[in-house]
Amino acid sequence: MIQGTDPLGGFAYHLDFSLPFIAVAIHSGDHVRKELQPLMALDSDQQRFEEDTGTDLMIKGLGNAVWALESRAVYDLNRSREMALPLTPEKFWGTRVYKTLPDPEMNKKSLKNYESFYGFMESCIARLLKRFGICIVYDIHSYNISRQKAKGIKSVPVFNLGTALLDQSKWKNDIELWLEQLGAISLPKIKTSVAQNLVFLGKAEFCRRICSLDDRILVLPTEVSKVYMDEIKGNVYPDVLNAVKNGLQNAILSHVRSKKIWGPF
């Protein structure tokens, strides 16, 4: 078992390598380095709105989990290296992140942290592939309901699975089973609904980059709507978040242990 925080401070992890999966929350972080804080134009409410608050808590406690500590306002792990730094409003949903742009050394440090995360993920996945011959990555995100309704989606799902980059013929049964597992999650006073490729397609960098490593890797980009919090004020509803956490963790363990997919462990 290994656990701790990356020496550069970008992410934390807990891995026992006992099952062929890793749960990841790449947008859970909210930390902004001290050297960058005086440069920021983004206020705390705007920053929190764009972060996937609570997704780290959804996966902590699982045997294999990795979660981001730094905010996506510093660098976005779900974008290519060339697009990862939000130095213009176009790279941060039209919102200005910096009143004064970071200097080249600051940007270099951010990108070093970006690559440290991917290097770590690749080494962990390689270890699981060597042991089991297969690896499934549960890529957990959350999304703002108000933004999707503004786009014209009247009824947004509690869970959305993006499968645009996946080999649909190869992973058909695995995808269908994961959708079933998500649909079985029970939340207090909230009717669980599940969609595939409705609000997000799963075409971002993390899925693309990890899937490209080896055809024995399945990434499941899973979005949770922010039913567990007030997305504007930033307040979390503990009972709902706890139910999401328990439901997701049970779903992950049930899915990865299913005889339909892996066989017995």
Short note summarizing the structure:
The protein is an alpha/beta fold and 265 residues long.
Structure report:
With 265 residues, this protein is α/β, with parallel strands linked by helices. It has one domain: Aminopeptidase, CATH 3.40.630. It is 32% helix and 16% strand. It is built from seven helices and eight strands. It has helices at 44-50, 55-59, 104-132, 145-150, 172-183, 205-211, 238-257, and strands at 2-5, 11-15, 21-25, 64-68, 135-143, 159-161, 194-196, 217-225. It has an eight-stranded mixed sheet, sandwiched between helices. Strand 1 (2-5) and strand 2 form a beta hairpin. The longest helix is centred in the middle third of the chain and has 29 residues, at 104-132. The radius of gyration is 18 Å and the shape is globular. The two termini are 18 Å apart.
